[in-house]
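Bench notes, afternoon.
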Amino acid sequence: MTVALLVVDVQNDFCEGGSLAVTGGASVAARIGSLLGREDRGGYPVVVATRDHHIDPGDHFSHEPDFVDSWPPHCVVGTEGAEFHPALAPRPFDAVFHKGEHEAAYSGFEGSTLDDEPLADWLRERGVDEVEVCGLAADYCVRATALDAAAAGFRTHVLLDLTAAVAPDRFGATLEAFDAAGVETRGDLSAPSDDQ
């Protein structure tokens, strides 16, 4: 069995100070960075990252967003907001999957490498049959990535202590979706941190 860690969208715009910040995002970045900074990368033989990579995602962007289906502009290609958060260093990723140039693309499985190789194909080619998902945000891109992983046939876990939610008070709906899809969770949803 080969397990891959999927680090979802730990980018500047999703952390404190960014255009679409998730409370606790920088703390999540630091905890994932600490895990990946170990000599054995936390014991994961395969580590990949996804990133929002927007150019013109249509009505996904709005100057009057509803914060459900439309959002302020974020993670625009070529901006500092699209870069990985510095606390995520050393970033020992085997591959990075870009998503959403011209669409919303919440799931990492909508992404591909710069050589246009989709995430699911890349994982299968390396014998991955189980994924552990972390990153931002728990109730949007982490949720979509985990559900798509399960639908693609990967045994899937979400590491709740390495993620944070946009709306923690409504996170129960996400847990119900995980349960229905056979996605397992570990740990507890990250609480807002005062150490930023």
